[in-house]
Design goal:
CATH superfamily: P-loop containing nucleotide triphosphate hydrolases
GO molecular function, one term: ATP hydrolysis activity
Organism: Pseudomyxococcus hansupus
Domain ABC transporter: 12-253
Order of helices and strands: EEEHEEHEHHHHEHEHEEHH
Distance between the termini: 48 Å
CATH architecture: 3-Layer(aba) Sandwich
Structural class: alpha/beta
Shape: globular
CATH class: Alpha Beta
Low-confidence stretches: none
InterPro entries: AAA+_ATPase (IPR003593), ABC_transporter-like_ATP-bd (IPR003439), ABC_transporter-like_CS (IPR017871), P-loop_NTPase (IPR027417), PstB-like (IPR005670)
Helix content: 25-40%
Number of domains: 1
Bound molecules: adenosine-5'-triphosphate
Keywords: ATP-binding, Nucleotide-binding, Phosphate transport, Transport
Strand content: 25-35%
Length: 258
């Protein structure tokens, strides 16, 4: 039997993407593929444009007035800025989890059901099934199944972050963007999130911004190193950490700056 592992395809791809906040260029001519069902870590010193790049992938930067861009971002080969693309649908397909968990001041159940209700789902049994599936997927079900009607604000920080992941997953996105999802958490909660990311990549394509080198090395298949708004290099995580092509990458991953 011949083993012919197919090269993973690009789920998303930035081509020569430049993004400006007013006159300030935040990222410059970045070309980067986010491969299907892999975890891509975005690393680099503060202010290098990691979050800007991440937010570009589901057009969150559109919400900041004065932003302009050139170049293209493709999702399954279609430019996400094409006139025919509905931004609400794009953000359903490309979900996001933020640094600081941001549950709504509603019950645990309603937090997860929120996107489904907005999408028009009314059937109670269907909602309950989807909420349970998402909470199980986010490895939170066992901890909250007996208190679904309690406020989400009563959960611990780590639980709140997993709830936000469940909320993002409920609408069945294809890509999950995570902006430092564990930076506010203790080591145990962080380990849970990392374990979860590992499980989620069987289903989702994931891009994660992290300041934590060990975390990037643990959770990602590929790592992209940004520096002063440019993509310096991207490759298999092991190669970036042990045998980078560029001196700047080596200096950063070995802790010489940043
Ligand atoms: N809303 C904004 N308006 C103006 N400039 C911004 C805005 N957001 C970011 N910038 C600037 O764009 C550049 C890139 O910022 P970005 O937040 O993408 O970097 P980052 O690598 O994610 O940084 P950090 O690791 O500190 O979060 C920085 O110079 C920043 O000051």
């Amino acid at each position: 039997m011949s083993l012919n592992p197919q090269k993973p395809r690009a789920k998303m791809e930035a081509r020569e993407l430049t993004l400006r906040y007013g006159p300030k260029t935040a990222i410059h001519k970045v070309s980067l593929a986010i491969l299907d069902r892999q975890v891509t870590a975005l690393i680099g010193p503060s202010g290098c444009g990691k979050s800007t790049f991440l937010r570009s992938l589901n057009r969150m930067n559109d919400l900041i007035s004065g932003t302009t861009h050139s170049g293209a971002i493709l999702l399954d080969g279609t430019d996400i800025h094409d006139r025919g693309v509905d931004v609400v649908d794009l953000r359903r397909r490309v979900g996001m989890v933020f640094q600081k968990s941001n549950p709504f001041p509603k019950s645990i159940f309603e937090n997860v059901a929120y996107g489904l209700r907005v999408g028009g789902m009314k059937d109670k049994a269907e909602l309950a099934t989807r909420v349970e599936k998402s909470l199980r997927g986010a490895a939170l079900w066992d901890e909250v199944k007996d208190r679904l009607d309690e406020s989400a604000l009563g959960l611990s920080g780590g639980q709140q972050q997993r709830l936000c992941i469940a909320r993002a997953m409920a609408v069945e996105p294809e890509v999950l963007l995570m902006d430092e999802p564990a930076s506010a958490l203790d080591p145990i909660a962080t380990a849970k999130i990392e374990e979860l990311i590992h499980e989620l990549k069987a289903t989702y394509t994931i891009a994660i911004v992290t300041h934590n080198m060990q975390q990037a090395a643990r959770v990602s298949d590929r790592t992209a190193f940004f520096y002063m708004g440019e993509l310096v290099e991207c490759g298999p995580t092991e190669q970036i950490f042990t045998n980078p092509r560029e001196k700047r990458t080596e200096d950063y991953v070995t802790g010489k700056f940043g």
